[in-house]
Every structure is written in structure tokens, then in C-alpha cells.
Amino acid sequence: MPSAAVVAAARAAGLSHLYVEIAESSRGFYGAPGLAALLPAAHRAGLRVIAWVYPYLHDLPADVALTVAAARYRAPSGDRPDGVLADIEENVAEGTVHAYGQIVRAALGPAAPMAIAAVPPQSSAGRAFPFATAALSWDAIVPMDYWHAQRRAYGPAEVYAYVRDSVTQIRARAARHARRSAWPDVRLRLERRRQPGRRRDPRRGRGEDLVREQHGLGPPRHRPWRALAGLVWAG
């Protein structure tokens, strides 16, 4: 899809951020051509672009280099991503996750907006995820809360309870070491602002309740991430 169409659709939907997967261990940094067009178009429209990387963490030096390259990418227009997010699912060994986060943080500096995406703590994989260790290096822990595990209809209360439990568990496990807060993320990984006249999704309303209840969930210092305290419900 052309960048202009992506931006137009995002604005029409009331989005403020775009998460764009641009790099993966098995494919390298494949998203540079797309970013070159998307970044300036998105920034002109007031949209922030988060560089999403998927490192497997089987080759730590290569994955660190891939992440840093994505975060530091500069388009021909001079535009750069507004932050980087690492999706950690393949290798969640505590020592590896710790080393990866610390090296990337050292390379990008203390002020670089960095988030780490993880499976929800309620899942079997999530129970083994080193959330406390991740909190040492990353500004935000973004649980990919796939609450729709079963093929059936879900009500707003169920979704709310699942995401709330996810955030509560992560905060409890990461509290001693957290640089920032745990933020909820739902399948589309995009924040949506409510627009006048737009029909309100009741599931989103429960998400907004959760945000207020958790006192914002987003860190006050890193403005590129602040709007991510909102929730998006796919459907």
C-alpha cells in the first residue's frame, strides 16, 4: 500500500502512532525502502512511527546490530523513527534478554525511547518471560495481549479483566527494577484517539477505564510514547 494511503487511513481512523515491522533476524533490515517513503509522510501528518524489530536472539551480536540500525535509520528526507520496539518471542533466556537489552541501551543512549514486546504473562510462555530483567533496560514492557485465544465471542468485561490482569502481573514481576511502567497492547498495536461523531466501541471504553485506573500507564518523560496509554481493540 502506498505511504500516502497508509497515512490517510491512519488519520481517518484517528491513529497517532504506526508500528511498522521493518527487521527480522531471518530477513535482515528489509524495511528501509518503505520507511524512506513513510517517515516523512507520517511526520507531516503528525503521526509517529515506531520501528518494530523481531530479533530471535540466537545470534546476539547480529541482532544488536540489526536493532541499532533500525533505531538509527535516517530517511533521505532526514526523518527518523520515533522509537524502537523489540518483539522478543523466540529466545527468552534471562541472560540473553538481559545482555541484549543492556547492549542496545548502551548503544542508543539513556534517552532513546525503547520498548520490548512480550507474550502475556498468563500464557505458558509468558510465565517464563524475564519481565524483571527486561525492565532494567527498556522504557516500556508491551504485552501482546491476545485475549481471544478461543474461537468465540468475547464481551468487554472479559477483555478488560484479561488486560488488567496482564498489566498487574507484569508490574508485580518487574516492580523492583522497572525503568518505567508496563503498558497494555492489544493485537493491532496501534493507539486510536476518539474522534467526534465516531461510534464508541464498548471494548475500547473499558480500555480507557483501565488506563485511568492504572494512572496513565505511560511514562511522562518520553513524549513519543505517551499516547500509547490508549488501547486498541481489534474487531
Question: How would you sum up this structure, described in words?
Answer:
The protein is α/β, with parallel strands linked by helices. The chain has one domain: TIM Barrel, CATH 3.20.20. The protein has nine helices and six strands, in the order H-E-E-H-E-H-E-H-E-H-H-E-H-H-H. The chain has helices at 3-12, 32-44, 60-71, 94-108, 124-127, 131-134, 156-174, 202-213, 223-226; strands at residues 17-24, 28-29, 48-54, 83-87, 114-118, 140-143. A six-stranded mixed sheet has the order 2-1-3-4-5-6. It is globular.
Largest sheet: 6 strands, mixed
Instruction: Tell me the number of helical segments per DSSP (H or I, 4 or more residues long).
Output: 9
Segments where pLDDT lies below 50 for 5+ residues?
181-198, 214-235
The Cα radius of gyration reads 17 Å
Task: Count the E strands.
Answer: 6
Distance between the termini: 21 Å
CATH superfamily assignment? Glycosidases
Calculate the mean pLDDT score and round it. Answer: 79
Which sequence of strands runs across the widest sheet? 2-1-3-4-5-6
CATH architectural name: Alpha-Beta Barrel
Helical content class: 25-40%
Task: Give the CATH class.
Answer: Alpha Beta
Total separate domains: 1
Beta-strand content bin: 5-15%
Shape: globular
CATH topology: TIM Barrel
- List the secondary-structure elements in sequence, H or E: HEEHEHEHEHHEHHH
> Which class of secondary structure composition applies to the elements?
alpha/beta
